[in-house]
């Protein structure tokens, strides 16, 4: 930019908002957290919108990167997204920032975030990839509920605002990005692979498995590792040592597979594993793939109890 | 690098979500389950040692407490039985038994056992 | 020093990693991926994986289907190796736990697929890629020697004296820039569908590996061949799998007419017929759509013209059993139920047949550098890939590249040359400069969008020389502007704007090669249709396009003869008995 102080465009507005934050200091709300407070962020965001407007040709050219069509925002309604911002080193705690984005009927929350990233504030950080509910990247808390943002549509929220926060229960790396390495360690711990003994079949022959045997574990194999269940689980949020819904469901996926010869009893029959579960059941409610981890856990409780009462019984 | 922000522990977590609140309420009904056992032991003790169980049980506060306890334990039992299908998956010839059948079976068994007990308790000797 | 460094954690990369670990547990192997491996785009593959297993099928028939489907641009030695090894790889996946759909007696089930003369497509309902990727990923956890660099973005290959020596990568989470020395590098970053505006591809598919190799001096091959899948949901571009048609779905125009019968694809039948009508190859189906549109027989929607995919006659039970994900996607993302409603669809960019030029072991002309999967072009897909060939491809050639790289690393044990450090430092400075921010210039999103529309306009289903020539110039201009693109994010932690900027550069490099190759190929073949050169020209163009990066950064295109073993070029016949 040639004139650094001229508040033209989004950048100036964002900077102004940033400066405001610094001056306000810790403890005060940077930018806007209350929908009715018009100053602060909201103002900045609006200013940003106007800035972009001036840059364009009369109307704001709005193009979502994924969507291949232009949204002429002349009379279009807008909706406010209140988005968590957290920049380590700059912010001592996360704050909410408001952005006005076009209220399009077929937009998902993720489209709104991409609109912000592409047109209003390039510094917003979040994960996404497939936008078809299968890669598991874009889980966030939407109005307090863990959701896949690619499959959560504006139409659900009327005129808004919509509050978008990082998944609860995980350390926040930045903005909407959380740390999920803990899950991968746990997943590895339950040996999520087919355990076989003895000689392997040659690569010309498959193991036979009837549709009923497939059905016995199939549901638990549908987990996309999106972390919504961990975020919804109060046990995990209070005690990060809890093995957690998805890891146990995936352990069950192999335990119930007719081809598996392993035994995961020692890693599942623990206070931090299935017995840590108090059966709140929220994991199952939020699961976008109907894996029903709560069921996986309760079923293993029964298995483990039988094994303890009847020590000679093997699965 | 440990720059990640770790939110402080939320001590009122069970108020953040209606389902959490219901869950905690259900957990609290366990107290009344415990009371029911204590009450039973007091009554048995009175019977075995020649006391009058009715005198204890007839006190207004005990009656009041037991009414509440009955409601709480019934709630606990009903929700418990309703959750059972989640722990027991029954497949018949590839067809998974729907939840309502298992729940229905549980409730029927419960009623039957209750009826049998009631028969022995209430029959006039 | 790492023995085998794999860039990309999708199906090809993970299969390669396991191959290395199994070849020699003493070798150090690392998977560097810009997303957690289970997020890779392999996860989105739906329909299935082809491998000859059924009685009555033969390797030769799979070869012929593949070669004719690819309009004779496939290297037939590669196709033969691929077809022979595909069943073995699919069984290997079965041994690792992949939940393949089964017949009543417990054998693996197969389904028909577009352009295939026999039923040979293995499937896990219609989430085949998802199950394949998660099976591979979870199986890699068994191998302690496979080290993962999750959410690291590779920005440069270090090449000295014709040999690869490692990569420079950014740890996205911390912003830490590291030179990772390696004896061999396997590129497995997937395709580049995101260079187009309307694509089934995930956001991460930005052609990174192709650009890395291209900049390092390796040639890309057949980049002009872009596959349009005939059935994408309008607006989102979400894929509705070919399996929907294999299970009996019909494509109908606005009059309810099964229009494919007008385009030399056979006569409509009640039950799906192999290599006919809706089970024709993707290039021909997408081209038929354009003709329907020109005849005014498509339906206008706010998101462009569509035709309909009709699954209603399949009934709820079959849909739920065979293609449940189709129903799930339609309900969640299109607000309709395929059991009772027509699904609006239109052609959508799905796959790039081209990629880094490799031999049958995935080796590129740069010593120690390999490529596998959609990033690579071996080539088995020729001018048009058949549906369900790409999943076995990532397995067969992932394994081959892994094995070959392991052997190379065992044979070449010397220490790193000093050039590694110097090149690494240069790249670090470049990235640090980018991260200082730039408050002028164009928005990344605006440049990306210009690039996408330029390419769609010129290198879509039908192309002309004049438009392509213009696109070559526009893309060159955009590439210059991208150097001065605006960067607001100066943070070290999870700076996605920095990554987006690097991806914009890789996409522009790849986009240029697509336009240049398409301009150079003055014929029509498979997915490359030139309205100014409507016929296939085997005399001049029975050859691969090979594109190098000239010293000035512009693409320079040459030709490389196709390998023909047993199937001389012939006519592509579909639906005619």
Automatic annotation (TrEMBL), chain B:
Highest taxon in the source lineage: Bacteria
Alphabetized InterPro entries for the sequence: Fumarate_red_C, SQR/QFR_C/D
UniProt keyword list: Cell membrane, Membrane, Transmembrane, Transmembrane helix
Keyword Cell membrane: yes
Transmembrane region(s): 28-48, 60-84, 104-122
One GO CC annotation: membrane
Full protein name: Fumarate reductase subunit C
Native species: Nonomuraea endophytica
TrEMBL record, chain C:
Fumarate reductase/succinate dehydrogenase flavoprotein-like C-terminal domain mapped to chain residues: 448-574
Alphabetical keyword list: Cell membrane, Electron transport, FAD, Flavoprotein, Membrane, Nucleotide-binding, Oxidoreductase, Transport
Cofactor section: FAD
Membrane spanning stretches: none
Entry's Gene Ontology cellular component terms: plasma membrane
Location of this chain's protein in the cell: Cell membrane
Binding site for substrate: 229, 241, 350, 385
Record-given protein name: Fumarate reductase flavoprotein subunit
Native organism: Nonomuraea endophytica
Phylogenetic placement of the source organism: Bacteria, Bacillati, Actinomycetota, Actinomycetes, Streptosporangiales
């Amino acid at each position: 930019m040639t004139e650094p102080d001229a508040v033209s465009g989004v950048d100036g507005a964002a900077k102004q908002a940033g400066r405001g934050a610094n001056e306000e200091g810790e403890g005060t709300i940077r930018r806007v957290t209350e929908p009715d407070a018009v100053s602060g962020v909201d103002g900045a965001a609006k200013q940003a919108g106007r800035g972009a407007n001036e840059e364009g040709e009369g109307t704001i050219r709005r193009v979502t990167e994924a969507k291949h069509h232009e949204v002429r925002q002349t009379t279009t309604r807008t909706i406010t997204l209140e988005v968590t911002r957290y920049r380590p080193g700059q912010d001592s705690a996360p704050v909410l920032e408001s952005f006005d984005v076009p209220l399009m009927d077929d937009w998902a929350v993720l489209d709104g975030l991409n609109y912000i990233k592409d047109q209003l504030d390039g510094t917003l950080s979040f994960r996404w990839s497939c936008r078809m509910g299968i890669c598991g990247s874009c889980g966030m808390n939407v109005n307090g509920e863990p959701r896949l943002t690619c499959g959560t549509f504006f139409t659900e929220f009327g005129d808004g605002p919509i509050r978008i926060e990082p998944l609860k229960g995980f350390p926040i790396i930045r903005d909407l990005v959380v740390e999920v390495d803990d899950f991968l360690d746990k997943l590895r711990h339950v040996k999520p692979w087919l355990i076989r003994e003895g000689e392997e079949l040659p690569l010309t022959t498959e193991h036979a498995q009837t549709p009923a045997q497939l059905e016995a574990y199939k549901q638990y194999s549908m987990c996309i590792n999106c972390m919504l269940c961990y975020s919804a689980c109060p046990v995990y949020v209070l005690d990060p040592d809890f093995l957690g819904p998805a890891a146990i469901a995936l352990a069950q996926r192999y335990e119930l597979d007719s081809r598996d010869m392993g035994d995961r009893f020692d890693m599942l029959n623990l206070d931090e594993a299935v017995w840590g579960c108090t059966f709140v059941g929220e994991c199952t409610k939020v699961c976008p793939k109907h894996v029903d981890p709560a069921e996986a856990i309760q079923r293993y409780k029964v298995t483990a109890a039988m094994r303890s009462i009847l020590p000679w019984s093997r699965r | 690098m440990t720059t990640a922000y770790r939110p402080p522990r939320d001590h009122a977590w069970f108020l953040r979500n209606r389902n959490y609140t219901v869950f905690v309420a259900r957990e609290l009904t366990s107290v009344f389950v415990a009371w029911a056992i204590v009450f039973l032991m007091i009554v048995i003790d009175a019977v075995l040692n020649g006391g009058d169980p009715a005198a204890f049980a007839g006190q207004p506060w005990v009656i009041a407490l037991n009414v509440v306890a009955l409601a709480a334990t019934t709630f606990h039992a009903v929700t418990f039985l309703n959750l059972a299908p989640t722990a027991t998956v029954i497949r018949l010839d590839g067809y998974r038994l729907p939840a309502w059948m298992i729940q229905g079976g549980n409730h029927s068994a419960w009623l039957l056992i209750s009826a049998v007990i009631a028969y022995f308790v209430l029959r006039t000797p | 020093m790492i023995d085998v460094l794999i860039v990309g954690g999708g199906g090809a990369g993970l299969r390669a990693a396991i191959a290395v670990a199994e070849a020699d547990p003493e070798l150090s192997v690392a998977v560097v991926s810009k997303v957690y491996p289970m997020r890779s785009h392999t996860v989105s593959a739906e329909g299935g994986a082809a491998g000859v297993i059924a009685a009555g099928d033969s390797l030769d028939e799979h070869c012929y289907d593949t070669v004719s489907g690819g309009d004779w641009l496939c290297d037939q030695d590669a196709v033969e190796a691929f077809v022979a090894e595909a069943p073995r790889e699919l069984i290997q996946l079965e041994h690792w736990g992949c939940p393949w759909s089964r017949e009543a007696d417990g054998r693996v089930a197969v389904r028909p697929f577009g352009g295939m003369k026999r039923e040979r497509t293995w499937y896990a309902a219609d989430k085949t890629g998802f199950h394949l990727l998660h099976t591979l990923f979870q199986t890699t956890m068994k191998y302690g020697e496979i080290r993962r660099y999750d959410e690291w973005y590779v920005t440069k290959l270090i090449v000295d004296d014709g040999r690869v020596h490692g990569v420079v990568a950014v740890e996205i989470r911390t912003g830490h820039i590291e030179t990772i020395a390696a004896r061999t590098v396997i590129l497995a970053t997937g395709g580049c569908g995101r260079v187009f505006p309307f694509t089934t591809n995930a956001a991460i598919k930005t052609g990174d590996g192709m650009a890395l190799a291209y900049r390092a001096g390796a040639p890309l091959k057949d980049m002009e061949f872009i596959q349009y899948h005939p059935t994408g949901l309008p607006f989102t571009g979400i894929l509705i799998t070919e399996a929907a048609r294999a299970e009996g779905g019909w494509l109908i125009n606005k009059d309810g007419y099964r229009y494919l019968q007008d385009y030399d694809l056979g006569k409509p039948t009640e039950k799906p017929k192999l290599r006919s009508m809706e089970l024709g190859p993707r290039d021909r189906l997408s081209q038929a759509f354009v003709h329907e549109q020109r005849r005014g027989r498509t339906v206008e929607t706010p998101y462009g013209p569509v035709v309909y995919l009709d699954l209603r006659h399949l009934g709820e039970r079959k849909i739920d059993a065979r293609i449940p994900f189709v129903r799930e996607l339609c309900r969640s993302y299109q607000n309709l139920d395929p059991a009772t409603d027509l699904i609006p669809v239109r052609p959508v960019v799905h796959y790039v047949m081209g990629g880094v030029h490799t031999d049958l072991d995935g080796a590129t002309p740069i010593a120690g550098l390999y490529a596998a999967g959609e990033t690579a072009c071996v080539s088995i897909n020729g001018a048009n890939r058949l549906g369900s060939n790409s999943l076995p491809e990532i397995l067969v050639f992932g394994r081959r590249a892994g094995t070959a790289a392991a052997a190379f690393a065992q044979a070449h044990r010397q220490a790193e040359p000093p050039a590694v450090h110097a090149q690494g430092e240069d790249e670090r400075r470049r990235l640090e400069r980018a991260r200082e921010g730039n408050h002028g210039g164009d928005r990344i999103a605006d440049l990306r969008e210009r690039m996408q529309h330029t390419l769609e306009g010129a290198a879509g289903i039908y192309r002309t020389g004049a438009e392509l020539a213009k696109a070559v110039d526009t893309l060159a201009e955009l590439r210059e502007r991208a150097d001065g693109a605006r960067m607001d994010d100066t943070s070290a932690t999870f700076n996605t704007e920095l990554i987006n900027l690097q991806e914009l550069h890789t996409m522009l490099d790849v986009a240029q090669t697509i336009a240049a190759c398409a301009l150079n190929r003055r014929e029509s073949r498979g997915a490359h249709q030139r309205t100014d050169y409507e016929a296939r020209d085997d005399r001049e163009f029975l050859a691969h396009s090979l594109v190098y990066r000239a010293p000035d950064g512009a693409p320079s295109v040459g030709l490389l003869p196709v390998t023909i073993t047993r199937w001389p070029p012939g006519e592509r016949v579909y639906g005619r008995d």
